[in-house]
Amino acid sequence: MLGFARRSRVKTVSLLSQFVRSVSSNSASSPSLSIWRRKKEMTKEGLFAAKELKRLRSNPIRLDRFIQSQVSRLLRTDLLAVLAEFQRQDQVFLCMKLYEVVRKEIWYRPDMYFYRDMLMMLARNKNVDETKRVWQDLKREEVLFDQHTFGDIMRAFLDSGLPSEAMAIYDEMRNSPDPPISLPFRVILKGLIPYPELREKVKDDFLELFPNMIVYDPPEDLFEDAKWRRESESD
Known about the structure:
This protein is mostly helical. The protein folds into two domains: 37-98, no CATH class; 109-218, Alpha Horseshoe (Serine Threonine Protein Phosphatase 5, Tetratricopeptide repeat). The chain is 71% helix and 0% strand. It contains twelve helices and no strands. The protein starts with a helix and ends with a helix.
C-alpha cells in the first residue's frame, strides 16, 4: 500500500513537471508573450537612470561607471523601458550602450523583436557600422525573423536611403527557412520605387514565387521623379 502511494506521488510530480515545462516552452516561443512587445513604463528609478545617462553621455569614464554601478541594477522592466525610450528619441550612442547591458543580463534570451527594434532605430539614423555589428550578433545567436519583419526592416532601410543595406537584408530574407508570403514583397516593391533596377530584381523573384499574382507598376514618370529626388538629395 505504501509502495503504491509512493508511486502515485512520483507519477503526480512527474506529470506536474511535464506540465510546467510545457507551459514555459510555449510562453518562450509565443510572440504575443515576448517581453519586447509588452508596454514599457518607467518607475522613478528608470526615469532617474535615463536622465543621468543623457547627462553623462559626453563623459565616457563617468558614463561607464554609472552604467556599472546603477544601470546594471535596474529591474528588467525599467531597463527595457529606458532602452525603448532612447530608441524613440533616436539616441543611437546610448541605445548601443544599453544594448550591450541587456545582452549581458541573466534573464536575456535572443529575441526577434529586440533585434527588430534596434535595426529599425539604426536604419532611421543611417548608422551602417552599428547595423553590421547588430546583424553579426543576431546571426551568432541564430535569431530568425519572420517574413513580415524582414519586409518591415528592409523598408526602413530603403526609406532612409540605404539600398545596399536593404538588399543585403533581402538576400537574408530569400535564404530564410520561413516560407515566403506575398505581402512583405509588396511592401518592399513599394519602397524600391526610387531604385528601378533593384525593383526589377525583386519583382522577378516575386513573380517567380507567386506566378498567379500581379504587380502594379507605377507610371514611368513616377520612377523618373523618384530617381531625380534621390539624385538631388545626394548632391
